[in-house]
Amino acid sequence: MKKPFSRDLILREIPQLNLISQEDMREKAIKAWELAYTDSDYEDLETVNFSPYYPKPTLLGHTRSVTEASLLLAKNLLKEYDYPIDLDDLIVMAALHDISKLRENISDGNGGVKKGPVGAAFQHAFFSAHYAIEAGLSDKVVAGIFAHTGNTKQLPTSLEAILVTYGDMADADAHRFSYDRPLQVAKLHK
Description:
This protein is globular. The chain has one domain (7-189): Hypothetical protein af1432 (Orthogonal Bundle). The chain has helices at 7-13, 23-39, 59-81, 87-96, 101-104, 117-121, 126-134, 139-146, 159-178; strands at residues 49-51, 54-58, 105-107, 113-115. Helices cover 54% and strands 7% of the residues. By secondary structure, it is mostly helical. Helix 3 packs across helix 9 (159-178). The strands form 2 sheets. It has a two-stranded antiparallel ribbon with strand order 1-2. The chain contains 9 helices and 4 strands. Strand 1 (49-51) and strand 2 form a beta hairpin.
């Protein structure tokens, strides 16, 4: 039986959402998570795996890690160079970048996940952007979410989106390295 969506769970598992200064924006980010979870076949948001290839990291853990890494990069750039970075946009992009995995992947029946029909039919990040649009987030945030992956031909169009892309790549490559899988960063060296 599917557990009901919990706003408190999202705020507890992705505590960086509490740093968003615009309450309306925070609520829209939470709404996007609710839409994605409601559309998914998962019964418990806390146990959703991040990837079919890695049994350990959960989607919420990966999201929390990417959001924190993106924030650390942003805070450093603000301190060192005073670049104009909108931390609210950055946090929302990072917090929503992979919610599409709730639709892309399905349970494999053994406690893990596998790519499902939606994951085979749509490029990664399509549904993340879709849920961000449905929740009423800005075009800048939607574009940043959509461009976070090398699976799209869309390059990041904001500094915030660049930082989320690299935060995600670093976290994902740490898992790839730990499980002896090909690294994304290798594509940058060709």
